[in-house]
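Posting this for the archive.
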Amino acid sequence: MPDHLPNSPVSIRFAEVDTDALASVKGRLAVLAEPGQPLSPAGRRLDRLTRGAVGRAVASAAFDRLKPGEALDLAWPSGLEAEVLHLIRLPKKATIAEARKAGAALGRVMAEAPALMLAEAHPMAAEIAFGLAMRAYGFTPHKTGEKKPLGAVTMMVAKPEAVAAAAAPGAAVAEGVFFTRDLVNEPANVLTTDDFAARLAAMQDLGLDVEILEEDELARLGMGALLGVGQGSESPSKVVVMQWRGGATGAPPLALVGKGVVFDTGGISIKPAGGMEEMTMDMGGAGTVAGVMRALALRKAKANVVGLVGLVENMPDGRAQRPGDVVCSMKGDTIEVINTDAEGRLVLADVLWYAQERFNPAAVIDLVTLTGAIIIALGHEHTGVFSNDDALCNAFLAAAKAEGEGAWRMPMGDAYDAKLKSRIADMMNVGGRDGGAITAAQFLARFVKEGTPWCHLDIAGTALLKSDSTLAPKGATGWGVMALDRLVRDRYEAK
């Protein structure tokens, strides 16, 4: 089997602008330009070397039609040793999203050949570097043949040391995103609950305190809802607790809680065969929590944050949970299991309660690939956001918007909650097809203590995509790592 070392982003070296070296640059060469504006010093040098080809291309209708961040490619340009010259349209007053897209234009075509990005004095150079790093991702541990590392990347900028310092936090976030993507992309025969826990335990080397709670401890704590989900699997259920203590001693932490169903067959309420292979991503919430914790540790965040993930596998078996079973949660509430495929909320119910009981957090945010209903409502463009606290919710939505991660607040209310009423227990685990994402949120809300600010993020539509996005190839996106890191920086870090 392949090794499972973390997939690290491409290393980017920042250097002074050296226009004399451009003729001999091999591999890929990228320069920024804008129609109707003078070429940059490096652009003018490249124009002379290519006998005016750069100027003609930038003045062309084809270049004018490009959107900011898009590129026009000149293959094997005369006068240069480079294989490709990428002319990337980007104005001086670019947005963060446009700058990242410009970097991604080079990142998406990275191979074993070296690459040079000419950002020069562009004020968004650090964001360009971030976009490049984020898009230069591939998941290849299960492909045979020789593995060739990506070529070295040099970014020529006006003030290398300042740009490198500005880019450092983004490099940590990119590594967290890559960790999340790797986890979500990994097949379930590799990413078992044991393997998942081991990968999280390895982050102790970064300064995280990591604990693994095994089934006997979970039973002692009364986590009957979580244990019921995994009782049909040969893989043992676990809860992993990751603590980052970068803030004031004794200050209550932000708690991040993730659903880690490493594979979801639906259990006895088994899913249709078509598309079931994608249920390797049903641990996407736990993957995002792990990626955030990795990013916070790497950049030494000045905040107290605890990440908790419930790791289970939902399988049909002679011991599996049945529709109609009644389980008792850690809180003490009983739950009638109407549908064993509504298992994520059972996992989260116990982990949410444990997080509050043990840590008395300043706020709780959970991330769950929870419902198909949220995909029907919002497609794959936005995560559904549910909350009991306007201030927390608005802060998260602002962070998500700043990072370009789509998020949309959804309603909650007593009428939806009433749909969970059970004849034989305190509640049912489903409330019917109508408003399915909302009733799922209402279920989780029952396990949030009065006065605890809480956000629930239903990432079923955003954790994995079937087509490329600006900053990721098709597959796992790592959605949420950037937004939550931004939320920690803006709201919870010591200033």
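The radius of gyration is 24 Å. The chain has 16 helices and 19 strands.
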